[in-house]
Amino acid sequence: MYPLLKSYLFRLNPEEAHYKTFDFIRLACKIPFLTQLFRRLYNVNDQRLERQLFGLRFKNPVGLAAGLDKDAVVFNQLANFGFGFIEIGTVTPLPQEGNPKPRLFRLVKNNALINRMGFNNKGVEAAALHLKKREHPNLIIGGNIGKNKVTPNEQAVNDYVLCFNALYNVVDYFVVNVSSPNTPNLRDLQEKEPLTALLNTLQNLNKSKPAPKPILLKIAPDLTNTQLDDIIDIVKITQIAGVIATNTTINRSGLDYPTEELESIGAGGLSGQPLSQRSTEVIRYLKTQSQQAFPVIGVGGIHSAKDALDKLDAGADLIQLYTGFVYEGPALIKRINKAILER
User: Fold this and answer.
1) Contact at 8 Å (CB) between 6 and 95?
2) How far apart are CA 277 and CA 140, in angstroms?
3) Are the C-beta atoms of 113 and 271 separated by less than 8 Å?
């Protein structure tokens, strides 16, 4: 089914295809027999796939990464395709248009995407309203939070606090995104001092709540080993629940496209198969150097069951899909879960 849909969608502008896909998913899931068909086709129901992590029970370890359902408008429908958890966002306190179009590009030869979306979203309050309509009580939902483009880094903590408070009652865990390359100077917040201060503030707020939620940090694949050592220290100092490794990369090496063509696309974060090896290296480094001190969710370049198993072998406790889901469709989720069971 998906190869036919993909052949149509890949003829469209990538961002237009994104919204057409949402329209298709919403329409299809209004038809009861199609919803049941999707569940039968793509779900693998086996208790051996369940994972207990930071106080939450995941029905399987394969999740959807942030960035696809930014505004939490199709998370209920996406749950029918077999995901063990879904992460919405990145959301910001105020709605923002994001960067000028075009801002999403396919690199089909490499099964990759380049995006410079720029946290385009309708604001955290809109997402919170949608999340109140959760139809699957056992579906784990993560909330990925960021800052508005116009907010200076010195005041960024206020944006994260606003998002945390707005989503607290409607998500199961939080992800602090300071690693997108598409918001000017955002990655400066990954430096040890500002990041420790930001996470400590959120943790203090979290501890003041009746039932604290797990807070994770999403990091860039472009960090050096010294910076990764800092991340390990920060997790220990702030006692956050874990790390998501990794976000998109600004690296363009090894792509099957002329330099001039890549330069014509311009800036943005690269995701997909070219990121696979590096994200796996970061997972392994974090797990080894920290002596398994905290959970890691692995994301980046998972386009096959083998890619997923490589992440798990490197130490990932859970994994997430984004670009692989775009290129391979929901059958990839089933293939990964079956491969995990066969092992």
Assistant:
1) no
2) 27
3) yes
Average pLDDT taken over every residue of the chain: 97
* Cα(75)–Cα(77) distance, integer angstroms: 5
Structure tokens at 160: 């994260």
One-letter amino acid at 3 equals P
Q: Look up residue 159 and give its two tokens.
A: 């944006």
Classify residue 87 by burial, with Cβ atoms within 10 Å: 0-12, 13-18, 19+. buried
The share of the chain scoring above pLDDT 90, in percent, equals: 98
DSSP bridge pairs for 296: 243
- The per-residue pLDDT for 1 is 77
Q: Is 18 exposed, middle or buried (0-12, 13-18, 19+ CB in 10 A)?
A: middle
Q: Which domains does the chain have, with CATH numbers?
A: 2-342 (3.20.20.70)
In three-state secondary structure terms, 156 is helix
E strand or H helix at 113: strand 112-115
pLDDT in tens, 213-266: 999 999 999 999 999 999 999 999 999 999 999 999 999 999 999 999 999 999
Q: Rounded to an integer, what distance in angstroms lies between the CA atom of residue 142 and that of residue 101?
A: 28
List the structure tokens of 166: 């707005």
Phi first, then psi: give them for residue 300, nearest 5 degrees. 135, 105
Positions marked active-site: 180
pLDDT of 230: 97
Q: Assess whether pLDDT exceeds 80 at residue 200.
A: yes
| Amino acid in the structure at residue 213 | K
d(CA 150, CA 124): 16
CA pair distance 73, 13, nearest whole angstrom = 21
What separation, in Å, do the N-terminal and C-terminal C-alpha atoms of the chain show?
28
List the one residue out of 72, 15, 14, 65 whose CA is nearest residue 300. 65
The pLDDT-based confidence of 137 (bands split at 50, 70, 90) is confident
Burial of 253 (0-12, 13-18, 19+ CB in 10 A): exposed
